[in-house]
Amino acid sequence: VPESVDEFLLPPGKRVEVAVQLAAAGRYTLRNAGYTWGFGATEAAELATFVVAGDPAPAAALPTVGVDHVGRSGLVDAPVDGRRTLTFTIEVDGGAARFLIDGKEFDHHRVDIQAKLGTVEEWTLVNDSDDDHPFHIHVNDFIVTQVNGKPVAAPHLQDVVSIPQRGSVVIKQRFADFPGKFVFHCHILGHEDRGMMGLIEVVP
């Protein structure tokens, strides 16, 4: 469902669709406002420039409704079959940083979570570090129900959510269609490559 916003946080790997209506002649910019995500930062920058000229055209109505994917999913009101807590940490040992989920580095031979096909699970994602960790899981979209203990008023389906520094996010997902193994991980490449990834297996 479309939302009216002035700005939004777009962590690595997340995608949004944006509709912009420019009603008057002039020069407009789409900007990255700059963001500090812990030990790193993204500088403010101009991403695109729009130049509007000529006689005004009749304004087209911006969309106010869309396909209710959340409603179709039934996730908001679905009973929860199981709950888990995953904790994201960074350990520095002799100058080398290790990026961990539940105290473990990724091992492609190890199944970290086993879930049953067709069930709904609620995961509390805890960030016990001073970096943001954009969480991504393959195969399943999820809804975010809480951020730092505060309920989310209008959840929507997504597959990337930023877990704030020293904060938490609660997500709800259904393992609906695909049995087998796939991964979840931090979507900051340097974190993922240094171990912040896990393997889930969905079984019939």
Tell me about this structure.
The chain is mainly beta and 204 residues long. The protein contains two helices and 15 strands. The longest helix is centred in the middle third of the chain and has 5 residues, at 69-73. The two termini are 33 Å apart.
Percentage beta strand: 35-45%
- Structural class by helix and strand composition: mainly beta
Helix content: under 10%
Order of helices and strands: EEEEHEEEEEEEEEEHE
Please state the overall shape, judged from the principal axes of the Cα atoms.
globular
Order of strands side by side in the largest beta sheet?
6-5-8-13-10-11
Q: Could you give the topology of this structure?
A:
Blueprint: E1 26-32, E2 35-36, E3 41-42, E4 45-52, H1 69-73, E5 82-93, E6 96-101, E7 113-116, E8 120-127, E9 133-137, E10 142-147, E11 150-151, E12 160-163, E13 168-174, E14 180-186, H2 189-193, E15 197-203
Parallel strand pairs: 5-8, 7-15
Antiparallel strand pairs: 1-4, 2-3, 5-6, 8-13, 9-12, 9-14, 10-11, 10-13, 14-15
